[in-house]
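pinned: reference chain
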Amino acid sequence: MKVTRKSVKLFSDFYSSDIIVASPLGLRELIERERSADYLSSIEILIIDQLDVLAMQNWNHLKLIFEHINKIPKQSHDTDFSRVKPWYLDGHAAYLRQSILLSAYETPEIRSLFNKNLLNVSGKQRIQSAWAAAQVPEGIRQNFVKFECNNAQAEIDKRFEYFTTRLFPVLLKSAVQSVNTVIFIPSYFDYARIHHWLKTQESVTFTVLSEDSDNRDISRARQAFFSGSKAMLLVTERFHFFRRYKIRGIRNLVFYAPPDHPQFYSEFLSYPFLDDGVLAEDVTCKVLYSKYDYMKLERLVGTAEVGRLIAA
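pinned: its structure tokens
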């Protein structure tokens, strides 16, 4: 967009624009196609809205944009250098850029973006509010299962090891929890790993709902789980974010990790009651977590209680 004294031009060339409205994916495709991001060199105010939604897409798109923003351009592009501020030529534009990051909640990725990429010399401020516990149907017993891990880099492997060697065998030993069970997996990479591992378990019948599922796959998976021909159902958070299907036939819920969106936790705990005659004592819920899930847990149990769970 180009802004003049008397008008606003909604479509203008990048290098003559005053305001750029774009998605991270759109900018990335343009950068890779033109092999240049010189139009990002003079950004003075950066506003990124709905970071929680962008986290459900490819976070690398956003990281790529920060790698190119406020860099010294490779070409002049007919620039009037008499109007260029000295600190841009000195490569200090990032230290004077005003940045505003908006999100419904915070994630480690957003905190990393805040810590490493916001460099304004005037400082920075993070504003957040206390969380109340997520609302769930009364009477459901929620079992939060903690596994010990003292190394953030090993957390993924420790979680997988605990799930496959300790939590999942307990499910199989129970006549109740070995059927009608949904395993909710926030990360696609964890989902792919669990999916591959379950294929090696001959005694387990399962189906999946992921962002890779088309409409036919979704219909078959939901019907197979509801009818009982498949004992377990793997669901990814991105699938539920984009599709929002209500799933019937659930009696047991296992969260491989706390979901990013606290409302998803509430929604899945309400789904068993879509079926007639289901009581709260018929539903079980297990949430696997470590101390590195602090932000996610805070949104589930509330700010007042999260410290107790982490210290347990």
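why pinned: The longest strand covers residues 141-146. Residues 40 and 69 are 5 Å apart (CA to CA).
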